[in-house]
Amino acid sequence: RPQSKSFKVTYKAPEPRGEHYFAESFDRDTLDGWVMSIAKKEDTDEDIAKYDGKWAVEEMRDSKLPGDKGLVLKSRAKHHAISAQLLRPFAFTTKPLIVQYEVNFQSGIDCGGAYVKLLTQTPDLDLAQFVDKTPYTIMFGPDKCGEDYKLHFIFRHKNPKTGEVEEKHAKKPDADLRTYYTDKKTHLYTLVLNPDNSFEVLVDQTVVNSGNLLTDMTPAPEDWDERAKVQDPDAAKDEDAPAQIADEAAVKPEGWLDDEPEYIGDPDALKPDDWDEDMDGEWEAPQVPNPKCESAPGCGEWKRPMVDNPNYKGKWKPPMIDNPNYQGVWKPRKIPNPAFFEDLQPFRMSAFNAVGLELWSMTSDIFFDNFFITDDRNTADRWATEGWALKKSAESAAEPGLATQMLSAAEERPWLWVVYVLTVALPVVLIIVFCCTGKVFRTTLHRRVGELLFFFFFFSKKKKQTKKKSFINTNQAVRHYITDVEHFRSAVTTQLNSSVVYQERAEQLLREQDSGGLLRTA
After folding, report:
1. For residue 131, which phi and psi values (nearest 5 degrees)?
2. What is residue 2's predicted lDDT score, i.e. its pLDDT?
3. Above 80 in pLDDT, residue 494?
4. Cα distances (angstroms) measured from residue 52 to each of 73, 82, 94
5. Residues 370 and 432 reside in one and the same domain
6. How many Å apart are CA 108 and CA 111, to the nearest integer?
7. Count of C-beta atoms within a 10 Å radius of residue 269
8. Are residues 357 and 500 in the same domain?
9. 59 vs 71: CA distance, rounded Å
10. Quick check: 288 and 261 in contact, CB under 8 A?
11. Are residues 102 and 174 located together in one domain of the fold?
């Protein structure tokens, strides 16, 4: 329903309560505590290597909560990097990790990310030099390019024997993520990691992905071959069975001029006076049809016409054979090797002590708000209630009502009036008609409703009119038909009332006949 004076959501900045490691609502209207990177990205063109994308603390363009500010990525086609220290490092021990924050793609999103990185605690961590290669423990959040909608959850796992670090990616969510990137609403992204190695990814407090760090995170090796069948490299196309072949039954027509070309130089053409052979080359007369060929069946080399090949087998593809490199469907396996180790507690990741955004986006004005990191689920839920839930209520209150949405949709697509009539108006009218009217009115109304539906289907196919004009014409026509039906009902009612009078008079005559008073009445 539209937001009004009688229904107004008042904003109040959320207050962090309970055990937490980081809380940021940006309502101080400042970036105090945040560090913007001044580094350059390696292996990148000098023109775009700098992390010089702009950040600002401001309200959303269409904010429904005056006073509610957030962090906004302001530049497009720029590298952005900004980070902040936690109140204290987070160590993965016996308590869960909950990370949550809000994102609003105010201008939609073409290609870019809105994910956070939890930066690994290291002695040499310098937030002013935060780049893409800065070690992180977890990367989490939305990312989109083209029609590829992602919700990352990646953690970096360190081999205790070799020190090598490998990225582990969560399986792709089964849920359709498109709406979160296109509806221009504020969405709450939450990651929950538990000491038993289970994890949950939530959007707007609804689980969209879940699993176990031991079984749902390991990617297959890049060179693993799961193809059971491959194309036969030794197979050859049957060159004797093309789609068309020369017609062997064809005979060269009599009078065919083999030695005459189909086109000759124009004998009437003259070389232009300003033709310069040094500059323009040797002059040649333009080609015109050979007049000798006009009276002959044809000129030049005769070739048999092509006909469909009866042996043609369709477009050729090499047959499939067993893949000699087939290794089966890949599954994680343990093999003896010098670096082998078994980690049954992947939850015990490297500690982190900072949170950062390191992003590239082709769309500006991405809005971030209400970052929160804790080890208590109830504390996180309370923060979400005071922040995101309030914002959601304000956005919902400002949405148009169902009737307004239906009218707006019909204004864009006039054929929706047919759907509205069939699913809403028509059933109501029919219930009234069959419960409150007689047979005469019902029979005629069937015909009028049929005409009305025919009109709708006919009108919805008229593409040449503008949408607005179509909407107005449709609306007027509906009103005219409703008025017509009402007039018809009124006329039938009058006739029925008259019929009742005549029926009563006839019954009186019959009674008088029975009593012998028919002559007096006559």
Report:
1. -135, -175
2. 45
3. no
4. 11, 10, 40
5. no
6. 10
7. 13
8. no
9. 9
10. no
11. yes
The answer as to whether 186 is a domain residue is: yes
The pLDDT-based confidence of 409 (bands split at 50, 70, 90) is low
Pick the last residue of a domain from 398, 414, 439: 398
- Which single residue is written with the structure tokens 């009593």? 515
Model-wide pTM > 0.70: no
C-beta of residue 62 within 8 angstroms of C-beta of residue 16: no
Which of residues 358, 382, 398 is at a domain's end?
A: 398
In degrees rounded to 5, what are phi and psi of residue 469?
Answer: -65, -40
408 and 354 within one domain: no
- Residue-range definition of the domain harbouring residue 431: 402-514
Say whether pLDDT at 465 is over 50: no
Look up residue 424 and give its DSSP letter. Answer: I
Q: Is residue 207 part of a domain?
A: yes
Determine contact, residues 182/147, Cβ cutoff 8 Å.
no
Number of domain units in the chain:
2
Please tell me whether residues 72 and 193 are part of one structural domain: yes
Residues 6 or more apart whose CB falls under 8 angstroms from that of 116 comprise 99, 101, 139, 140, 141, 355, 356, 357, 371
User: What is the reported pLDDT for 334?
Assistant: 59
Q: Residue 337 falls within a domain, yes or no?
A: no
Strands (E), 325-471: 352-361, 366-374
Instruction: Kindly report, residue by residue over 25-35, the tens digit of the pLDDT.
Output: 998 888 999 99
Question: Are residues 36 and 166 both part of a single domain?
Answer: yes
H or E segment at 98? strand 97-105
Q: Which CATH number covers residue 142?
A: 2.60.120.200
List the single range of 37-41, 307-311, 401-405, 429-433 with lowest mean pLDDT: 401-405
- Amino acid, res. 287: Q
Residue 3 in domain: no
What band does 310 get if pLDDT is binned at 50, 70 and 90? confident
Element (H, E) at 17: none
Integer-rounded Cα Rg, in Å, for the chain is 40
Rounded to 10 deg, the angle between the 402-412 and 467-514 helix axes is 110
> In terms of domains, do 394 and 418 share one?
no
